[in-house]
Amino acid sequence: MRGRDLFLSAKPVLNMTAKAMRIVPRPLLVWWWTLSDLLPHLPGVAVRYCILKRLAKRCGDNVLVGPGVEIRYWERLSVGSNVSIHKQCYIDAYGELDIDDEVSIAHQTSLVSFQHTWSDESMPIRDNAVVSGKIRIARDVWIGCGVRVLSGVEIGSRSVIAAGAVVTRSVPSGVVAAGVPAKNVKTIALDSGGDSSKATSPGQSRFHG
User: Fold this and answer.
1) Which of 42, 125, 139, 180 gets the highest tally of CB atoms within 10 A of its CB?
2) Which InterPro entries is this protein grouped with (predicted)?
3) pLDDT number for residue 165
């Protein structure tokens, strides 16, 4: 059974469980989130989904979150439907973070929606003010393993971010971005009148995490 079909069969129970969690204090839910790493795969995914639906600003259907994922500022995080966030990712939504539908985020990726300043020389850099910057990941994006997405970035729809890339600037729709810092290296989606020679072949996986 496909993940989406499995979710649909369990959706009523998952939604009721998420609603019941409204009476559970937030610190306890965050603790349960950590403990869910000890559960087998499917029960762990179910528990994490219910907690995410309870604590996040928005959470759609069929969201898979792997073990070891750390989330900060849950209330500023929006997640669409059919999204997968794989194990050991770090998500900091201090400056707000929107993840649209059909997005896959491979393991050990970091999404950080703020950055440190260093202008006040009277104090250590770590104690200087931070500046927030919203991150938005549009529909149908694939983010490879070990990617770093920094504050203020928007990733356009149907784009791929290559494994190990550091994304410091916004990425347009329909491209592969790779490198440190990430640059557009290939077009994978065509607009009207586009050059078909720029499109990748189906199933090309060189940049996937």
Assistant:
1) 139
2) Hexapep, Hexapep_transf_CS, Hexapeptide_acetyltransf, Trimer_LpxA-like_sf
3) 98
- In terms of Cα–Cα distance, which of 185, 166, 176, 172 is closest to 208? 176
Q: Which two tokens stand for residue 16?
A: 């009721």
- Token pair, residue 38, equals 């000890």
Domains of the chain, by residue range, sit at: 1-55, 60-194
List, in sequence order, every beta strand (DSSP E) within the chain: 58-59, 63-65, 70-72, 77-79, 83-85, 90-92, 97-99, 104-105, 110-112, 114-116, 130-132, 135-137, 142-143, 148-149, 154-155, 160-161, 166-167, 175-178, 183-187
pLDDT on residue 189: 56
Q: Identify whether 202 is preceded by a cis peptide bond (ω within 30 of 0).
A: no
Phi, psi of 149 (to 5 degrees): -110, 120
Considering the segment(s) 60-194 as one domain, its CATH architecture is 3 Solenoid (2.160)
pLDDT of residue 1: 62
Confidence of residue 116 (pLDDT cuts 50, 70, 90): confident
